[in-house]
Write a structure and sequence with these properties.
heterodimer; A: 159 residues; alpha+beta; seven-stranded antiparallel sheet; two-stranded antiparallel ribbon; 31% helix; globular; B: 120 residues; alpha/beta; five-stranded parallel sheet
């Protein structure tokens, strides 16, 4: 929690270390322990696949998980117990990315003041462009099995 | 014994079913429901011995399913498997009559701890 110097209000944001711990636990549990999440360079591919959830109530924010198409397919294979060379259906890829952001977002919600409501996940092609009043308070640039993964948390300014 | 697994994510239903096997429940029949309304209908149609339900689902959420079941007199053992494991959610689940709340992500050990007292 950080104090806003101008208004004295508290801009409530999760700690980066907590979001990383939550994300690592999700990956370890459902994508296997043999291929850990590692720090990675930022990725800005135009054909990215992004899953998003929003939290509204005691804390207002959004959590996004962004993959490359290849990374999203690999995640779906891992979650479904398929061979990494299998080609999952587009529906299963979207389902997998949505469930991953649902878990990361649900756990971020649990870290923040409540009561709040977690939205159902949405998954789409491309990167999320947040509204102008939103600001990114946590960004994790990671890599998993060689595929870039970005976790981002946005909030609506200070409360 | 029959277990109803309710989650709008097919991927998550597969993970839950796989985890049930890893936790030693491979000899149980599993019925899947893809949203809350489907879960409600399948509880009445299939008479499961345990319901494992997501919380946040389209059509009808998990807490509404549980409340409707209890309101209709059903006492089917019911537990949540959800990404939201805060104390507030656990209190709401318990107040509505849930036996447990397993927070995602989970392990086979978490399943054993929660399910053994119900299914043993």
């Amino acid at each position: 929690m950080t104090a806003d110097i101008e208004t004295g209000a508290h801009a409530v944001a999760p700690e980066t270390a907590d979001v990383l711990a939550v994300t690592e636990e999700v990956w370890r549990s459902f994508l296997g322990e043999s291929e850990p999440l590692l720090p990675g360079p930022p990725s800005d591919r135009a054909d990215a696949v992004t899953g998003a959830v929003t939290v509204t109530g005691g804390w207002d924010g959004a959590v996004t998980v962004t993959f490359t198409p290849e990374g999203a397919a690999a995640a779906a294979c891992a979650m479904l117990g398929l061979d990494p060379t299998d080609v999952p259906s587009p529906g299963d890829v979207a389902d997998a990315v949505g469930e991953l952001v649902n878990m990361v977002g649900g756990n971020v919600k649990s870290l923040m003041p409540g009561p709040s409501t977690l939205s159902l996940p949405v998954v789409a092609g491309g990167r999320v462009t947040p509204a102008s009043e939103d600001r990114e308070v946590v960004r994790l640039d990671l890599t998993w099995t060689g595929h870039p993964v970005t976790i981002s948390v946005h909030t609506k300014g200070s409360r | 014994m029959k277990i109803l697994v309710a989650d709008d994510s097919r991927v998550m239903r597969q993970i839950v079913i796989r985890t049930l096997r890893q936790a030693g429940y491979s000899h149980h029949d599993v019925v899947e429901a893809e949203n809350g309304r489907d879960a409600l209908e399948k509880v009445y149609a299939e008479s499961p011995d345990l319901v494992l339900s997501d919380w946040n689902m389209p059509e009808m959420n998990g807490i509404d399913v549980l409340t409707t079941l209890r309101g209709s007199g059903s006492q089917v053992p019911f537990g949540f498997v959800t990404s939201e494991g805060s104390e507030e959610m656990r209190s709401r689940a318990a107040a509505a009559g849930a036996l447990f709340l397993i927070a995602k992500p989970f392990t086979a050990e978490t399943f054993s701890d929660a399910l053994d007292p119900v299914l043993a």
